[in-house]
Amino acid sequence: MSNASFIVVANRLPVDSVVDDEGNRTWRRSPGGLVAALEPVLQANRGTWIGWAGAAGAAPEPFEADGVTLLPVELSETEVLRYYEGFSNASLWPLYHDAVEPRVFRRSWWKSYYEVNARFAEVCAREAAPGATVWVQDYQLQLVPGMLREKRPDLRIGFFLHIPFPPVELFMQLPHRMEILQGLLGADLVGFQRPLAAQNFLALTRHLLGYRPRGHYVTVDDRLVRADAFPISIDTAANEEIATTERVRQRAKEIRDELGEPETIILGVDRLDYTKGIEQRLKAFRELLEDGRLKVPKAVMVQVATPSRERVEQYRTLRDRVEREVGRINGEYGQVGLPAVHYLHQSFDRYELAALYQAADIMAVTPLRDGMNLVAKEYVASQIDNRGALVLSEFAGAAGDLRQAFLVNPHDLTDLKDGFVTAANATLDDKMKRMRAMRRYLRKHDVSRWARSFLTALGVPERGAAYNPGSQPAAD
Ligand code: ADP
Ligand code: F6P
Predict the structure, then answer these.
(1) pLDDT digits 0-9 by tens, 85-103
(2) Ligand 2, pocket-test mutation among 9, 138, 271, most atoms within 8 A of CB
(3) Using one digit for the tens of pLDDT, what is the confidence trace for 358-374?
(4) Do you know which Gene3D superfamilies this protein is assigned to (predicted)?
(5) Which CATH number fits the domain 4-229, given the four candidates 3.30.70.1110, 3.40.50.620, 3.40.50.2000, 3.30.43.10?
(6) How much is the average pLDDT of 461-466?
(7) CA gap 285, 300 in Å, rounded
(8) Catalytic residue list contains 370
(9) H helical segments located in 210-349
């Protein structure tokens, strides 16, 4: 047994290991909202992060970065295929996102999911100090709380799901649904992004296991398990600080200039995932150009599509469809040197992202379904002059928090198009009022508050209180 008193267990470490042809290893920040949110919490707690280093094969040695101990867990090539790409991302991911793409089930994937979860639980049980707090993250590791409780009943175990949790009738399709539910119930606290997800979970404990949930609690053996909503957020102060730097302001101006000083820049920043509604967004933009409600070069779109899960079939075909649509729009509406859609299939550093956010008149965050969508919150925090407009899907978790956004239903193309036009034509006064209100909200409801409220509910308030971002943002 080791002496780690605060442990986060997540599929991925905050950094991915990249080994070049000569065998030299470098580390690259891992994609996604989970890392963005948890990194500052772990740094403040000087905790231990157990996760996969992003490549198949032997795990690198444990090491320390920014006060966090990183403990890599090994995944073989077959496990990457079956546990990560298979059961996690081709079975659970589509199902939990309301089956916007058909889910695939293979029996061999489950076996691998089980074995990898057991490995994570094993490592964690070995590393945790007596009575330690362990915070398990996301759908890839739903069996870990139950497995860990069996090995180490002395631990305080929390679980947080970063994606939606489906209604009873969808969850019931899942092979091994009982084991998954029981795995989650190994935690003392099961956290979700939205209240409806917590309700779905509690309803399932009754439906599948015959438990009797009362309010937010369900009794399992002699333990009380709480299920509740804890909407995740960003490090607002850090985002505002970056956005106010001269480097970002200057770069934002350059971007506008490079795009030909359009009246309306519509920006999308997403992992290239079918849940994000990128195709629907592009189609809406094309139809707006077709209808003449928007015109190039006065209006242009910038779509950043971060490479993601590139070996999974649905992601490969999505990329083809998105790139075909971009080509079609540019073929029909672009001009020499002035494309209608600027498509960037790349990762950027935080400064470049902040400059893109600041340069954009409209940020389109229009997922068909999503847990939170931190990019929406990052955009708001970057709007230091309050001039931008956020077009936000009702089906993004962020819609529960950012009520002053221009809310749209991305499944309804007409509504989506109208949302863009309304945002493009909104008065400056209207946009500034909305943006100010959202920024005020985010200053209060930042990631530190999220961590604090979760850890307080888990019974370890001192861990949450330890995280206190240094600089407070300037008032409006
Ligand atoms: P998800 O977790 O599904 O990817 P979120 O919107 O919650 O979605 O979080 C995405 C995170 O990834 C954000 O913190 C965002 O800044 C970051 N990100 C998105 N696209 C890029 C990119 N092209 N380069 C670098 N970081 C990116
Ligand atoms: O938010 C859902 C999630 O799977 C996170 O666990 C992760 O941060 C992000 O999406 C990126 O996914 P992946 O780790 O599969 O690249």
Answers:
(1) 999 999 999 999 998 899 9
(2) 138
(3) 999 999 999 999 999 99
(4) Glycogen Phosphorylase B
(5) 3.40.50.2000
(6) 69
(7) 9
(8) yes
(9) 236-243, 246-258, 278-291, 313-333
